[in-house]
């Protein structure tokens, strides 16, 4: 992202959500984005997803300037209840994710669908409908659908926010596992500093008034991460403290 700005124009007023934002994300990086409510996190993600056009500056994905949803990217948003198709089973929803993505090689779609459902721990629920699942399971299905399209870039906005604490910890580990397996690049927006530090190699803090970046912190915590071990590391606590001060003060 180079000198990106986004201004929302409604009939009554203009809101500049982001300005002078430059951010270079390397292939295979896991970046989390934090910052106060209203600082432009979701805007940043919608711009990256190509769902919203920039007002100034430019965004390139794999060297190509984007002017619509990039082929390599998939998104998972917070509202899982609305993101799955209720008339399709879990497997049907994941298969739907494969639709335009690519032609499968040997084995066809069924094998891929099973693979991604197993990856998120939903192999047993393939034939159920979304409304027969818990919130955490629905969100896992949405993640499986995104992963099944074999994106290079996975964009997630508060994707685990509506889920209970234990399921959330599980989902974090499912995502880390998938990230490691698939060689993905992940940009993950969250308001939860602990989650941001736990997941990422790099935590980006947006300026509260949307003027570019407030901080760009490379944590360097060891991998693989563990819910108990990682969260007790002195480096984890250090980054957590530093970032909390940044967003709260
Ligand atoms: N469609 C829109 N039309 C007008 N203004 C908008 C629109 N979407 C967002 N904004 C404004 O842009 C700013 C940034 O919003 P954004 O949703 O990106 O923030 P956020 O960091 O994701 O906040 P939160 O943590 O609450 O989700 C806010 O001032 C918001 O009111
Ligand atoms: Mg938001």
Structure overview:
- This protein is α/β, with parallel strands linked by helices and 249 residues long.
- It folds into 2 domains: 25-54 and 62-72 and 151-249, 3-Layer(aba) Sandwich (Rossmann fold); 87-149, no CATH class.
- The protein has 9 helices and 11 strands.
- It has helices spanning 41-48, 80-83, 90-98, 108-119, 135-148, 165-182, 193-199, 229-232, 234-248, and strands at 2-9, 14-21, 30-34, 56-58, 60-61, 64-65, 73-76, 153-157, 185-189, 202-206, 213-218.
- The strands form 3 sheets. Strands 7-8-9-3-10-11 form a 6-stranded mixed β-sheet, with helices on both faces.
- A hairpin with a 6-residue loop joins strand 10 (202-206) and strand 11.
- The chain is globular.
- It starts with a strand and ends with a helix.
- 37% of the residues are buried.
- The protein binds adenosine-5'-triphosphate and magnesium ion.
- InterPro entries: AAA+_ATPase, ABC_transporter-like_ATP-bd, ABC_transporter-like_CS, ABC_transporter_ATP-bind, P-loop_NTPase.
- GO terms for molecular function: ATP binding; ATP hydrolysis activity.
- This is ABC transporter.
Describe the protein's topology:
Blueprint: E1 2-9, E2 14-21, E3 30-34, H1 41-48, E4 56-58, E5 60-61, E6 64-65, E7 73-76, H2 80-83, H3 90-98, H4 108-119, H5 135-148, E8 153-157, H6 165-182, E9 185-189, H7 193-199, E10 202-206, E11 213-218, H8 229-232, H9 234-248
Parallel strand pairs: 3-9, 3-10, 7-8, 8-9
Antiparallel strand pairs: 1-2, 1-4, 5-6, 10-11
Helix pairs in contact: 3-4, 3-5, 4-5, 5-6, 7-9
Bound molecules: adenosine-5'-triphosphate and magnesium ion.
């Amino acid at each position: 992202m180079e000198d990106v700005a986004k201004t929302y124009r409604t009939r009554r007023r203009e809101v500049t959500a982001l300005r002078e934002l430059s951010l270079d994300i390397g292939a295979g990086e896991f970046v989390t984005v934090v910052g106060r409510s209203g600082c432009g996190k979701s805007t940043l993600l919608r711009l990256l997803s190509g769902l919203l056009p920039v007002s100034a500056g430019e965004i390139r994905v794999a060297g190509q300037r984007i002017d619509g949803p990039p082929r390599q990217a998939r998104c998972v948003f917070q509202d899982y209840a609305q993101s799955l198709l209720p008339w399709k089973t879990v497997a049907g929803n994941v298969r739907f994710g494969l639709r335009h993505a690519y032609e499968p090689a040997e084995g066809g779609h069924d094998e891929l669908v099973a693979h991604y459902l197993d990856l998120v721990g939903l192999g047993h629920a393939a034939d159920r409908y979304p409304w027969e699942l818990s919130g955490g399971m629905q969100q896992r299905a949405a993640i499986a659908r995104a992963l099944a399209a074999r994106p290079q870039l996975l964009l997630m906005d508060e994707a685990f926010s509506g889920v209970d604490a234990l399921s959330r910890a599980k989902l974090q580990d499912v995502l880390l596992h998938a990230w490691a397996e698939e060689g993905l690049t992940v940009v993950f927006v969250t308001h939860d500093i602990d989650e941001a530090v736990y997941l990422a190699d790099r935590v980006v803090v947006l300026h509260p008034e949307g003027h570019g970046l407030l901080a760009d912190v490379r944590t360097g915590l060891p991998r693989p991460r563990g819910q108990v071990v990682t969260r007790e590391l002195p480096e984890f606590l250090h980054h957590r403290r530093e970032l909390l001060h940044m967003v709260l003060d």
